[in-house]
Amino acid sequence: MPHFITECTDNIREQAQLPALFRQVNQLLADSGLFPLGGIRSRAHWVDTWQMADGAADYAFVHMTLRIGHGRSVEQLTPVMEDLFACIKAHFAPLMAERYLALSLAVEELHPVLNFKQNNVHDRFRQE
Predict the structure, then answer these.
(1) CA 55/CA 108 separation, integer angstroms
(2) What is the pLDDT along the chain (128 residues), one digit of tens a residue?
(3) Active-site choice (2, 19, 36, 94)
(4) Angle between the 74-98 and 18-31 helix axes, to the nearest 10 degrees?
(5) Closest residue by Cα to residue 2 from 86, 76, 104
(6) 36 catalytic, yes or no?
(7) Global pTM?
(8) CA angle 122, 126, 128 (to 5 degrees)
């Protein structure tokens, strides 16, 4: 963990430039010191069917969730989430200037016990 999950309307697939955003997000999360590098993942889910507002315009949205493991305080997470949303807003500013676009970000903390995982990627970073 963490996993940065993006739901994005299909009508901005090219303009969203998500690989560039994901590079920035992964670096920001790694630099925060709160998350192990080997657990950071970013991914997109493209939404091909949606309705926004009155449906009268070519609206678009990007909803992002930072899914994290249990155990970090609000005081620890607040600056990371603020920096993350600032990064997101800067990334999408050119697109927002030319079209209707809604951006949102939420954090989701997984259950402290009912959260199972296995990951040997961490081993790579322990050896370096």
Answers:
(1) 29
(2) 899 999 999 999 999 999 999 999 999 999 999 999 999 999 999 999 999 999 999 999 999 999 999 999 999 999 999 999 999 999 999 999 999 999 999 999 998 888 888 888 888 888 65
(3) 2
(4) 160
(5) 76
(6) no
(7) 0.91
(8) 120
**How far from 82 is each of 19, 20, 78, CA to CA, in Å?**
21, 19, 6
- Cα–Cα distance, 25 to 85 (Å, whole number): 10
Assess contact for 79 and 120: CB atoms under 8 A. no
The Cα–Cα gap between 59 and 71 comes to 37
Specify which residues 103 forms β-bridges with.
62
Q: Degrees (nearest 5) of the Cα angle 41, 46, 50?
A: 140
Q: For residue 44, give both structure tokens.
A: 């997109």
Residue type, 48: D
Q: Supply the pLDDT for residue 27.
A: 97
- Rounded CA-CA distance 92/90 in Å is 6
